[in-house]
Specification:
Mean pLDDT: 73
Number of domains: 1
Distance between the termini: 68 Å
CATH class: Mainly Beta
Largest sheet: 5 strands, mixed, barrel
Order of helices and strands: HEEHEEEEEEEE
Helix content: 10-25%
Low-confidence stretches: 12-42
CATH architecture: Beta Barrel
CATH topology: OB fold (Dihydrolipoamide Acetyltransferase, E2P)
């Protein structure tokens, strides 16, 4: 009798363990007819997501040319730093990110080092710059408005990003 229970239990247990190790996939492509892709497609998405951040793949919809700082040491006093972006997919959340985002949602984001090409002092890397239609992957910092900073709306900030090749347009 005990061997009959073992015959049922062990295969069931093995199946359960095998299902736990399946790779996570980007499910935002479901329903679009596109093939499922693992989330570790780029090096940025293969890294662990820091706390209070959300990793997104997004497209620049428009750039706000208003300069948002009068401090001459801030690059945003000379170049545009804010853009309206469309979240194409959410690749993951870090602990404590309190604002869920949905694919297709448009949000206003501030780029800490502007949308223009930039060489970063603290890193070997440089940012290629973004323009309307650019597709990129980035960690989004922010979420809830801060009453202490007199903020009414959500505030999102991007320090670094990776660009993607442009999507071909067919007529």
């Amino acid at each position: 009798m005990a061997s009959r229970g073992a015959i049922i239990f062990y295969p069931l247990f093995a199946t359960l363990l095998a299902s736990c190790s399946a790779p996570h996939t980007d499910r935002s492509a479901q329903g679009s007819g596109a093939a499922m892709k693992p989330t570790s497609q780029t090096s940025l998405s293969a890294e662990q997501i820091p706390p209070s951040q959300c990793r997104i793949r997004a497209t620049i919809l428009s750039i706000d040319s208003t300069l948002i700082s009068s401090d001459t040491s801030n690059p945003c006093s000379r170049l545009p730093c804010r853009a309206n972006i469309r979240v194409d997919s959410v690749l993951g959340y870090g602990a404590g990110f309190d604002r869920p985002l949905a694919p297709g949602e448009s949000i206003l984001v501030t780029f800490a080092f502007t949308l223009s090409p930039a060489k970063l002092d603290s890193q070997k890397d440089s940012l290629p710059g973004l323009q309307v239609g650019s597709i990129f992957t980035a960690n989004l910092l922010g979420g809830s408005p801060s009453p202490a900073a007199n903020q009414q709306d959500q505030s999102f900030l991007i320090y670094s990003y990776q660009t993607s090749p442009p999507t071909p347009h067919y007529k």
